[in-house]
Amino acid sequence: MSEENNHGSGxxxxxxxxxxxxxxxxxxxxxxxxxxxxxxxxGASLGITVVIILGLANLIADGFSMSVGxxxxxxxxxxxxxxxxxxxCWEVENLRDTxxxxxxxxxxxxxxxxxxxxxxxxxxxxxxEVWIDTMMREELKMAKDEKTPYKTAGVTFFSFVLxxxxxxxxxxxxxxxxxxxxSSLFLYSSLLTGVALALVGSLKSIVTEKSxxxxxxxxxxxxxxxxxxxxxxxxxxETILGLNx
Length: 245
Known about the structure:
The structure is a single chain. By secondary structure, the protein is mainly alpha-helical. It contains ten helices and two strands. It has helices at residues 3-8, 20-43, 48-94, 96-109, 114-125, 128-139, 149-164, 169-177, 182-208, 212-241; strands spanning 11-12, 15-16. It has a two-stranded antiparallel sheet. A hairpin with a 2-residue loop joins strand 1 (11-12) and strand 2. Helix 3 crosses helix 4 (96-109). It is elongated and about 80 Å long. The relative contact order is 0.18.
């Protein structure tokens, strides 16, 4: 197994490592945007029912929107790669001498000379698939992403909804099991969201190969800033418009 495969496959906890980036960024976006809705509703002194309705509506709509955007982004990248690969395939078949010279120039620039250079050119151009792959990688600096658009979109939506629902848990269960006022519910929601962001921030550090402390701190900071902005916007609108829901 190659080093590239070791880095690009396998599992981290129960996640397929290939899709952990989609899970992380979908989860972060879900938690932050949903908690921003909760904070804005709290700032506007809206009722529990309104918080749940707004939160769930935002959760589904934004999660779907994000997954669709991810789908088309991944598909566009794959289509672009396939289009350029088809062009290289045509050039190899119809402009063989030109393409051979391009391979020679590429490896000459890497320091290959004389007989060794010609051997490298001969080996590469003797296999059409290897030749085309080499041109894609060395000339166009393009590599195909093996992740499918459907799976990336699915993981993004799943993580957005899963992690994004956490800020709403205190409100959802308040009517059945808890007798708490809005301030207490918002406190519990804040704590739950902080835990969720810390966990996802830790996974983000694995993806980016950075310090876990830094990853968690950055994620919590982003969530806190978004919540503060939403809270004060809700508070200002409630004061100006006199909302009483």
